[in-house]
Amino acid sequence: MSILSKIKLCENKEDFLLKLNTFLKNNNKGFCCAINANIIVECFKKHPYLEIIKKAVFNTCDGINVKRIYNLTQKSKINLYPGPDLFNDLVFKDHRYKHYFLGGKESILNGLKENILSKNIDVDEKSFYSPPFLSADS
């Protein structure tokens, strides 16, 4: 059984947004992922990683190669809803959602914060956090 058959991917942007809005309306808890080729490789290499991705309530296809392979190997067909488009739609265009941005490098998170706040998006300045991370070699 292929990795892609184990991951719940939305058919398209509209499907993703419908599932997201239903999920939020029902006050559910969980997470979704933007699945790209790197995610697929990591799932193949690390079974525990696949188990985390499988627990996502739903996912979006974030890469043309994922779309191509999925559409060639699975019965159903999907379309791309890439992460940058999703981010743009949910943060900059649709203001019904609240956001919490969790980042790795503080400089990158600060750049994101400046970009979002400069566009007068209604986001709490406390909604940005860069936790201390240990080195992967630790």
SSE order and pairing:
Elements (H helix, E strand, L loop, with lengths): L12 H13 L6 E4 L1 H9 L1 H8 L3 E4 L2 H10 L9 H11 L7 E2 L3 H13 L9 E2 L9
Parallel strand pairs: 1-2, 3-4
Helix pairs in contact: 2-3
Task: Summarize it.
This protein has 138 residues and is mainly α.
Identify the overall geometry: globular
Count the DSSP helices.
Answer: 6
The quaternary state of the protein chains shown equals single chain
Described by strand count, sense and barrel closure, the largest sheet is: 2 strands, parallel
Secondary-structure content class: mainly alpha
Report the order of strands and helices: HEHHEHHEHE
Please give the radius of gyration in angstroms.
16 Å
Indicate the proportion of strand residues.
Answer: 5-15%
**Counted beta strands:** 4
* Distance between the amino and carboxyl termini: 35 Å
Fraction of residues in H or I helices: 40-55%
Average of the residue pLDDT scores: 87
Taking pLDDT < 50 over at least 5 consecutive residues as the criterion, the unreliable ranges are none
Across the major sheet, the strand order is 1-2
